[in-house]
Amino acid sequence: MTSNPKRGLLPIVVLRDTVLFPAMGQQLDMVRELSVRAIKHAVDSGSHEVFVTMQKKPDLDNPDPQDIHTHGIIATVKHVIKNPSTGTMRIRVECSCRAVASSVSYGSGMLTGQVTEREEQPCENVSEQRALSRLLKAAVEQFAQAGEFKQVRTAMELFNEGHDIGTLTDRLAHIMPISGDNKQTLLCQVNHKRRCEQLIAILRNELSLLQLQKDIERQVQANMDKNQQEYYLRERMRVISDQLGETESPAVEADNYREKIRALGLPEDKEEQLLKCCSKLAKLPVGSHEAANERTYLDICLSLPWNTQSKERLDVDAAAKKLDRDHFGMEKVKE
């Protein structure tokens, strides 16, 4: 149990898409007036303590109390370097513990809130800690092999430093390239076992997304290679036809048909069928009987009134007059 669970009113430092974890040091650049005033207040008061949390939407320049997460960490400001020309500052903070802020309000150009420490819930079962550590290590290794994680050595060294499963999870979450929302979820969890399980699930999900992304990229590249190959072969066929003195090669003729087909705006299945005929025509000799059949079929299809409608005239009397005028007799047929 913490000896001082209630910290009272603290100034709030709001970060964009960045989450800090306990027992770590961090350098931060304070640019917004909201955070600069919070740091000044903490230093001037002598406590040097601030509540650090992440805003819900990173694109907000001036977040209101409802725009920030109420779960964050209590940090102590250790060093401050001011830039007089810009009014900004670079600070270093030491993060101490998880906390939750209530009654957040805006005043004097900054956010403040009543801050209460949160009690950690360690995993007491040693065997369970070892099992979780192995699963977490395997997830980190698989993630590192599939992605662009550049701090693999640092991550692996953490497993040899003797941290409890809660601290190990925090330190890994701090350096892993996962989203701010995922890190915020881990920060909110005080139960060490559940926190570790959450990080394992997050890494496995990210791994699945990375593998799916690579599969899509390979398929896109394969399609590009196929299209480039077809273009190259068609160009070669055109050059060969020119060298043979042919006025119009099968490839050029097929391309002309393709343009006409695509211009019609046909249903997808119909267009695909006609384009297959074009591909077949492009491979046939100019004077072959089969090429003539494909050409005739395409000409007939292109001559049909696709997507063309005429106004209907449902006038029985007019139809009867036209039949009587154009066709003598045939009374039974007309009836």
Structural features, described:
The chain has 335 residues and is of the alpha+beta class. Helices cover 52% and strands 19% of the residues. It is built from 11 helices and 6 strands. It has a 5-stranded mixed beta barrel. Helix 2 runs parallel beside helix 6 and helix 8 runs antiparallel to helix 9.
Rg to the nearest angstrom? Answer: 36 Å
One letter per element, helices H and strands E, the order comes to EEHEEEEHHHHHHHHHH
The geometry reads as: elongated
> Got a strand count?
6
**Residue windows where pLDDT falls under 50 for at least 5 positions:** none
Number of helices: 11
Widest β-sheet, arrangement of strands: 1-3-4-5-6
Structural class by sheet pairing and helices = alpha+beta
Query: Largest beta sheet, briefly?
Result: 5 strands, mixed, barrel
Averaged pLDDT: 86
**Euclidean distance between termini CA atoms:** 101 Å
Share in helix: 40-55%
* Estimated share of beta-strand residues: 15-25%
In brief, what are we looking at here?
This protein is an alpha+beta fold and 335 residues long. The chain has helices at residues 33-45, 126-146, 152-158, 165-175, 180-188, 192-244, 250-264, 268-282, 289-303, 316-326, 331-334; strands at 6-15, 25-30, 49-54, 71-83, 88-107, 110-117.
How would you summarize the topology of this molecule?
Elements: E1 6-15, E2 25-30, H1 33-45, E3 49-54, E4 71-83, E5 88-107, E6 110-117, H2 126-146, H3 152-158, H4 165-175, H5 180-188, H6 192-244, H7 250-264, H8 268-282, H9 289-303, H10 316-326, H11 331-334
Parallel strand pairs: 1-3
Antiparallel strand pairs: 1-6, 2-5, 3-4, 4-5, 5-6
Helix pairs in contact: 2-6, 4-6, 5-6, 7-8, 8-9
